[in-house]
């Protein structure tokens, strides 16, 4: 339950940050290996923050799923 509450609070804080960040209309150029892209700073920050948030959740759940397997392996 504590985990869900923490995730909810972080999600609300991210939404508030995105709302404040949407006030910035300056364009930046992102250089990829094979392409370039122009987007507002707020969009880039929102995109990469959300990507980090999702990757963090996935990694945390992955470790949570591995923990019982490790216990079974150490036990047997």
UniProtKB/TrEMBL annotation:
Keyword Isomerase on entry: no
Transmembrane segments: 5-21, 41-63
Domain annotation Lipopolysaccharide assembly protein A: ranges: 23-73
Keywords: Cell membrane, Membrane, Transmembrane, Transmembrane helix
Any one GO cellular component localisation term in the record: plasma membrane
Superkingdom, taxonomy of origin: Bacteria
UniProt keyword Transferase present: no
InterPro entries per the UniProt record, alphabetical: LapA_dom (IPR010445)
Protein name: LapA family protein
Source organism of the structure: Thalassotalea algicola
């Amino acid at each position: 339950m504590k985990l869900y509450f923490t995730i909810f609070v972080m999600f609300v804080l991210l939404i508030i940050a995105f709302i404040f960040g949407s006030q910035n209309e300056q364009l930046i150029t992102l250089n990829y290996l094979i392409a370039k892209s122009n987007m507002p700073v707020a969009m880039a920050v929102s995109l990469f923050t959300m990507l980090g948030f999702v990757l963090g959740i996935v990694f945390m759940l992955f470790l949570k799923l591995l923990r019982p397997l490790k216990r079974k392996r150490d036990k047997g």
